[in-house]
């Protein structure tokens, strides 16, 4: 059983994608044309945000957002160390420094209490963060995003939401990506809304921020060849990927509902020894389904599923502060829960095109783990 299978896109969607891509090819308009503009408008409408800007990748979206809020060399951004190092890499690329925060043992997400701890430790060491990046991990909207947003505003710190795994998640009708100053999205093919290549976007309710990102994605130009902002990049979502994303966006809510239903079945089938880190609700889009199991080491759990023909993965095996990258604040904050998560989680298959027999096979394995 595959961990994911991108070839299973429905025949209907494939037909629409083929036609739309062919139209782009015939048009001869490949960069920053009508497909990108239309997708930006449709994405902003979907997440009920003021505007969005298509960029080349999800990591670029984070990088450009950090630049848009004014981060530069030696500035500090607070982030999680158990979310794949994307913010850490983005910060390093502009000379900024990440400051890590430990996470909840129940959700492996950032909490306001742990955020306060990290900021207090930073202040005691003469460090004042300029931004916070909250990753909505596994597709679960951070349960404390409202409180974190209020705290960030009270401290004059910019809040960036990393929604790469959580597009479509919402809380009280408010969508992931509409709580902070800026929000970033990835359209890597395995994401809930995936392109057929790389792609990303930045969204915001602040038109000034949107305009900054729009300039930064193309060399910092205000007009062609006229640089108005420093540190601009060449990071543009192309017309082909935008066209594909426009086809897929109307299917997203249906696909997210299917993911939630699979997760619900897993959680019912599993015994008490199996622990999940999200919950079935509109705030969860089931991008990933990581578990831990009492009495099983990570390697043992991986082997358990392998023997049963079920492909698994680990999200994410190495915490940022243990990566081979220069980090000034590597050990400033202790991260015991972060380290536990990286050493113990195993991610099982969950994607909307799974067959009934595949879902039943995973449920059966979860039942065995709980026996």
Q: End-to-end span in angstroms?
A: 23 Å
* Secondary structural class: alpha/beta
Per the principal axes of the C-alpha atoms, what is the gross shape? globular
Architecture of the largest domain in CATH?
A: 3-Layer(aba) Sandwich
**What's the Cα radius of gyration?**
20 Å
Largest sheet: 7 strands, mixed
Overall mean pLDDT stands at 97
Helix content bin: 25-40%
By DSSP (H or I, 4+ residues per run), the number of helices equals: 12
How many strand elements? 14
CATH class category name of the largest domain: Alpha Beta
Low-confidence stretches: none
Task: Give an account of the 3D structure.
- This protein folds into 2 domains: 245 residues, Type I PLP-dependent aspartate aminotransferase-like (Major domain) (Aspartate Aminotransferase, domain 2, 3-Layer(aba) Sandwich); 119 residues, Aspartate Aminotransferase, domain 1, CATH 3.90.1150.
- α4 links the parallel β2 and β3.
- It is α/β, with parallel strands linked by helices and 371 residues long.
- It contains 12 helices and 14 strands.
- Helix content is 39%, strand content 15%.
- The strands form 4 sheets. A 7-stranded mixed sheet has the order 1-9-8-5-4-2-3, sandwiched between helices. The chain has a 3-stranded antiparallel sheet with strand order 12-13-14, with helices on one face.
List keywords for this structure.
39% helix; single chain; 3-stranded antiparallel sheet; Aspartate Aminotransferase, domain 2; 15% strand; 371 residues; globular; 2 domains; alpha/beta; 7-stranded mixed sheet; Aspartate Aminotransferase, domain 1
